[in-house]
Amino acid sequence: MSLLQIKTAEFAKGIIGTDPILKAPFPQVAFVGRSNVGKSSLINSFTGRKKLAQSSSQPGKTRQINFFLINDAFYLTDLPGYGFAKIKEKGREKLRKLILWYLGSGEARPKAVVHIVDASVGATEFDLEMIALLRAERYPVVIVANKADKVSSTHRRAMIKSISDALGGGTPIPYSTKTGEGRDVLLAMIHTILSR
Ligand SMILES: Nc1nc2c(ncn2[C@@H]2O[C@H](COP(=O)(O)OP(=O)(O)O)[C@@H](O)[C@H]2O)c(=O)[nH]1
Ligand SMILES: [Mg+2]
C-alpha cells in the first residue's frame, strides 16, 4: 500500500464563484459533508496540520470553497457544510447554489470527491441528495465514515453496511480524527486517485 506523504499544506484561496484558480494546472480533490460531520477536523487530521481548516463549534460557518495547496501538486477543496437548519433560508439557498455550481457546472470539475458522513448518525437525507448528485456527475467517490470512535465494535459492521446500502455501494472508510484510525487508508486512496 503506497501512501500519500503530506509534505506541505497551505491555504491558497477561498472562492465564491468563477475564479482564475480553477485554471491552475493542479487537480482538485473535494471534501464534502453535512455540517458538523467533522469535516474541518478531518482535513486537519488528513493533512496533519492542527489548524489548517478551522474546526469551529459554530456549524455552517464556511460560506466559501477553500482551496488548500498540498505538496505543490494538488488542491484539497473544502466545500461548505450542507443541511444545516440554523442558516436562514436565503443563506442556505446561496450555499446550495455554490455547491451545485462547483460540482455540477463543469467549470471546476474535481478529480474525485471525498464524501464524509457521520458514523454515529448514518447517512441522512442530505447525504442521499449529495450522493445522487455525485453519481449523476460521475465522480469517483470516496466515502468516509467519520467519528467511528463513537460506534461500539459490536455495531461497527452494521454501521458500515447501513451507510454502504444507503449510499448505493462502496465500502465507507471508518475514520476517527480523535484516534487517527482510517488516515492511512484515505492517504492511500487519494494517492491512487492522483496517480491515475
Ligand atoms: N468523537 C468524535 N468527534 C469528532 C470527530 N471529528 C470531529 N468531531 C467533533 O465534531 C464536532 C464538529 O467538528 P468540525 O470539524 O467543526 O465539523 P464540521 O462542521 O464538519 O467542519 C466537533 O465537536 C469535533 O470535535 C471524531 O472523529 N470523533
Ligand atoms: Mg467546519
Automatic annotation (TrEMBL):
Instruction: Spell out the Pfam families in the cross-references.
Output: MMR_HSR1
An example molecular function term from Gene Ontology annotations: metal ion binding
- Job of this protein: Necessary for normal cell division and for the maintenance of normal septation.
Ranges for domain EngB-type G come to 25-196
Q: Does the keyword GTP-binding apply?
A: yes
Q: Which family does it belong to?
A: Belongs to the TRAFAC class TrmE-Era-EngA-EngB-Septin-like GTPase superfamily. EngB GTPase family.
| Alphabetical UniProt keywords | Cell cycle, Cell division, GTP-binding, Magnesium, Metal-binding, Nucleotide-binding, Septation
Listed cofactors = Mg(2+)
Q: List the GO biological process terms.
A: division septum assembly
- This one is known as Probable GTP-binding protein EngB
InterPro entries referenced in this protein's UniProt entry, alphabetically? G_ENGB_dom (IPR030393), GTP-bd (IPR006073), GTP-bd_ribosome_bio_YsxC (IPR019987), P-loop_NTPase (IPR027417)
